[in-house]
Sequence to fold (526 residues):
Amino acid sequence: MVNTGKPSQGCGTCRARRIKCDERKPTCFRCQKSKRECTGYRNQLFLRRLGNGKGDIINWSQLPSAGNVDHYQRDWPRSITKVTYRSVSPPETTIHPPPTYGIPTSIEEEALCHFINSFVLLPCKGNSRSYMDFIIPAMEAEKSLISPGTSLNTAVMAVAMAAFGNRQRYQLVLAKAAKQYAKALKQVNEALLDPDLALEDQILATVLILGVFEAFTGTNTLLNGWSSHAEGAAMLVKMRAQKKLLSPLGRVLHVMARSQLVVNCFVSSTPPPLGVGWWMQLGTKDGLPCQAARLNLETATLHAKSNDVLAEAAMNPSNTDSIIEVQTMAQDLEMKFRDWEFSQTREWSFSSVAWVDEIDVSQLEHSPSFPGRLDEYKDISIATAWCVMRSNRIMLGAGIVRANAWLHPDKDYRITPEYASTARISKNLIEDIIAAVPIFLGNFPEAFTRNRTPEIEKDALGGKSSLALFIMWPLFIVTISDHTTDGQRKWALGRLKLIAEEVGIRQALLFTQLTIRVPSMFIYKD
Fold:
């Protein structure tokens, strides 16, 4: 194909073959005639974001190279040298190696555009906060998508290729993603040898992006891959505490690390390092968002303490004082959640805008909404805060029942007042989470679209697939709670499968395979 200086509008396959494309949509006739897979067309909107703002397609060969960072060796304190990254679930064991002829540059470009279009959120009406938007300026200065110059850009390309490969079921691209992932891990380990470079925003951002890669690939059945990066990000934040002033990006990264930390504390049953107070220094310190973040951290901390206390009680059953203390702390924390709920401002309130009639049980798994009400929120970040808080509150209630069952082994825990109270609260919380899911996954029923007051214009958000990342943990908690009905569980599992198969976040499929029930399984184990 002769290069006229203008960007080709052809499909990715024709551009890679350097032949003229007829540009027919959804697939071009040339690909159809030659029985080749048509990889689709460039996303002009997001290429424009990465370009000069005038609609020009990026010319990667003319972009300035990212500055090479000087590496020099210094002795690290022992506490810092423990921060080492490795591939917990080596991609080579699960992804076929790429063919020897490699991948053309156009595939990398398509993958990056798909990732930005699908997973990068920019502030707009209905979404006051951004998500991963820092990768756009980082990629602007990148000279080569095939061999990025910085650890962050390498990690971004790994995630982009993983997202694109999952969505297109393109094994060749997934193999390339695995290679970039391994390279990013190596770059991070090298950076950690430099006491100054290790504290840069770029390194923390890289580790957070590597965690996203683990969520996309879902190659470890125990979530160890994602968990290792969440722990690594927390340790880097701890190390960076010595910096008196943080950049605006640094503060955003610290809050992202804190959000991952809460989930990881539940997964690993470990308390937040340095305690709740230290982590609350990050981000906003006032208002309802701050209170929600604190309550989530306190719940995660208490969850870890409860596990430790009950494990110790198994060795010394006569020592019930610590269990009573844990139960009291959990009940006090539940009261704080209620106070938070009753103190909502108008902006943080939500409203029911539609009702979904009964659905045949055989169709529940594939239905975009569950029978009952559908709720609407003024901002997607507010909806996220509500749903995460609800899921953690369900886990808190499970802890209360578990402690009470230990204290009264002669009674069936299901007929106690504590269980009745927790069941009532948890059932309401589960209904609230389910009623919010269409906000995150789309495909609104006709009644919802017709009757709602469109505060969140989901089509205008961009990065729509990233919303699935926000609702995965609440959906998982719904699937494992004893207080979820069979119909609700079947529907929630169907939503997780949709996230895995259609959005391409494979970690959601792992959540569907964990046959856990709380609190009953923990009680029987105790």
Residues 361 and 487 are 7 Å apart (CA to CA). Residues 1-6, 43-104, 458-463 have pLDDT under 50 and may be disordered. The beta strands are 350-356, 372-377.
